Amino acid sequence: MEEDPREVRGRSADWAFIESLPPRLREALKYYIEAGDMYVASRIAGLTVEEFNELRIRANIPNVA
Amino acid sequence: MSRSFAIADTCFLIDWARYRGRDLLFKLYVVYVPESVLREVKSESTIAWIASRLASGDLALFTETESEVEEARSIVERSRRMPNMPGVDLPEAVCIAVGRRRGYVVLTENRGALKFVELAEDYAGVTIRRSLEILLQLQLRGHCGDPALRFREYEEDTKHLFPRKDLLNAVAVIRRELCGEAQEVGGA
Fold it and tell me: Shortest Cα distance from A38 to chain B (angstroms)?
């Protein structure tokens, strides 16, 4: 049985790093962990999609798709 | 062998920009890049890659028309009304609209986009390809080697994890087609 992508993202995430970020970036990463939607997450963060993708990788959140 | 036209959304393109085998994509497709996707790219290395591939003709710029964007908005709205459906965002929706109108293959990882063309009868003719399927197609043109290597390298470079079941199925196809192993393709 395929694992829930939300759980995979949340388990792998570096939560200490996420919590250390300014609110917009922090909430955007939390949204991404929950929804997996990089475009919307990038808009929440106020970043381009590529910039948000770099942030996602720094936060150790896998793109599960 | 002549290449098909495809159109890529943002997440697909920035993942491939990070992949060590990124130029393999052009063995299969000439890839259109919508202007809206180009605006989402910021890093020097990705811009340099895109610019060089635009110059070589492997990538081509796609300027969305108002009518295509309007159709894309309608796709977004329809996807939001479908029950248990991951939403389709405007960039993917533009690719789906262009895929329907011009017959381009749509390159995206967006689950909503995949589901939408499955469920919306008027978009049933749109072909969507994810990276997993493209890597499989590329591997099938080569030799057996390590059947999982290309997928593993892609996952390492992009921090993009393929669904395990789909990955196991793809590796099983390679083992059967290239390595001559008689294996069941199916559930893991």
Answer: 8
Q: How far is CA A48 from CA A3, B40, B80, B116, in A?
A: 29, 5, 23, 25
pTM for this model (two decimals)? 0.91
**Would you list the DSSP string of A47-58?**
S-HHHHHHHHHH
The pLDDT score that the predictor gives to residue B179 is: 86
User: Would you call A50 and B86 a contact, using CB atoms and an 8 Å cutoff?
Assistant: no
- CATH pick for B4-129 out of 3.40.50.1010, 3.30.365.10, 3.40.50.10860, 3.40.50.2300: 3.40.50.1010
Q: Read off the pLDDT of residues A28-42 as tens digits, 9 standing for 90 and up.
A: 999 999 999 999 999
A-to-B residue pairs, Cβ atoms closer than 8 angstroms: 64
